[in-house]
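step=encode ok
step=design start
structure_in=
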């Protein structure tokens, strides 16, 4: 597959510019370029040298690697016996959880990257993006690894910008195939600052978010019953 890296980088620049609510003219002034030149950067018409890439990243208040296209995905073959059925041939999947702090669904996209061991792969998670076409433009980016076992799959993550924030996603019975799986997200909230656990839906495909879907993701009466029964938050 031929990838036009200039266009891919340009798309990311444009997405971050809009996220920062900057016009073409405003960002052009910050990087000491003409509006026409910046437009050509965003459309992939001219190549950006490394100095200007750092200048743009600084103007957008992001790390320069946020503007780099990532094509490190691999296809996990059916020959990989240690990969459970749910994850067979997946290079990417989605997660959804309901955030009561802001009263909305938080959606994330996860990319499976290079193989570390027979049952272990590197992974990237892009949390709370607005546009799937530029999902790398998101609130939080995590790196880590996904590890498969007989009874469950673990995803261990570290926040790329705040390394003290660690998270784990535990997915039960990933050897059974289905379109979605319930999992337990255990992580850290920065506002307010506290450790948290909540249920998270894992899906092979992107799901349209509506009121019914929101209700499915909310803590239910059955969740509360199990919490009181075990004195633990459980997802089954």
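sequence_out=
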């Amino acid at each position: 597959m031929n990838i036009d890296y200039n266009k891919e980088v340009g798309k990311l620049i444009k997405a971050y510019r809009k996220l920062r609510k900057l016009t073409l003219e405003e960002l052009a002034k910050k990087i000491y370029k003409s509006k026409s030149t910046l437009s050509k950067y965003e459309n992939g018409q001219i190549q950006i040298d490394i100095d200007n890439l750092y200048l743009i990243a600084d103007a957008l208040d992001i790390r320069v690697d946020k503007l780099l296209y990532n094509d490190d995905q691999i296809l996990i073959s059916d020959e990989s016996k240690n990969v459970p059925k749910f994850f067979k041939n997946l290079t990417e999947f989605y997660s959804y959880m309901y955030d009561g702090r802001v009263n909305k669904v938080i959606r994330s996209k996860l990319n499976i990257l290079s193989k570390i061991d027979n049952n272990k792969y590197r992974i990237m998670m892009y949390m709370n993006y607005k546009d799937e076409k530029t999902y790398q433009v998101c609130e939080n980016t995590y790196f880590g690894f996904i590890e498969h076992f007989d009874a469950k799959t673990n995803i261990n993550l570290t926040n790329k910008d705040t390394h003290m924030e660690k998270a784990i996603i535990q997915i039960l019975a990933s050897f059974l195939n289905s379109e979605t799986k319930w999992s337990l997200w255990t992580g850290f909230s920065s506002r307010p600052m506290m450790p948290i656990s909540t249920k998270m839906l894992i899906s092979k495909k992107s799901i349209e978010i509506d009121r019914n879907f929101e209700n499915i993701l909310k803590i239910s009466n059955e969740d509360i019953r199990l919490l009181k029964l075990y004195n633990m938050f459980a997802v089954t």
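step=design ok
step=annotate ok -> Confidence is low (pLDDT under 50) at residues 74-78.
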